[in-house]
Amino acid sequence: MLGYYSSLSSEVYDLDKPVGSSFGDIEYYTERLATCTGSILEPAAGTGRLLVPLLEQGFQVDGFDVSGDMLAICRDNCEKRGFAPALFEAKMESFSLDKKYGAIVIPTGTFLLLHEREESLEALRNFHHHLADGGKLIVDLFLPSELELGKLSVRKWETANGDVITVESQIVEVDPIKQYRVSQARYEKWRNGRLMQTELERYPLRWYGVEEFRMILEHIGFEDITVSADFQYGQYPTRAGQTMTFEATANKKG
């Protein structure tokens, strides 16, 4: 099985979505977390695009990621700004900590990388377990707009030292019944016309209907569930392509 977010793809992520770059989500999350008491946990913290701005706003944030390469960049981005948060390698469905959080946040649809139904359910149960009473789960989802098999997409980036990284990606599998697609991407780093490094990676992506995901959260035990579209709090989604942000509370007393 091919992995994802190895060395080259992590470097591309940091180039394409550097610390502080926002889709409207950093401002939204900062506002929604303003009343949060206790620490915040960001699963799939990546290179620190959101984590670092939250630290700069004075929040106490821990983070983890399944990719050691992403975490290495995240640590470096934090250290450059004088921060040393707790960062560790783990999976959303199986991490285990002796700590309860005031909020758990998963932006940009990263939760959808858990394309197997049972592992996604286990991750939600794990989030609920690690939230303090009254703690908030905030997670972004979206409906994929592209499901055409074999259509090739090509992008490139230039690094600070003049290297060029190219990425060719295409969808190789679509399962509309199980609600997921799988993309395959080939990363290549070039220097002065010579190929220096290459990676082949696999990216699964699951999708959910709006009310389907609400019912899943309720089944897990979450309450006070709010759905928002494109970072407009309480505005219900009306079309495909919108970011759908779910906010839910772990009420554990009573």
From TrEMBL:
InterPro entries: Methyltransf_25 (IPR041698), SAM-dependent_MTases_sf (IPR029063)
Presence of the UniProt keyword Nucleus in the record: no
Membrane-spanning residues: none
A molecular-function term among this protein's GO annotations: methyltransferase activity
Domain (Methyltransferase): residue spans on this chain: 40-135
Protein name: Class I SAM-dependent methyltransferase
Pfam families: Methyltransf_25
Matches recorded under Gene3D superfamilies: CAC2371-like domains, Vaccinia Virus protein VP39
Biological processes, Gene Ontology terms: methylation
Enzyme Commission code: 2.1.-.-
Alphabetical list of CDD domains matching this protein: AdoMet_MTases
Domain of life per record: Bacteria
Keywords annotated in UniProt: Methyltransferase, Transferase
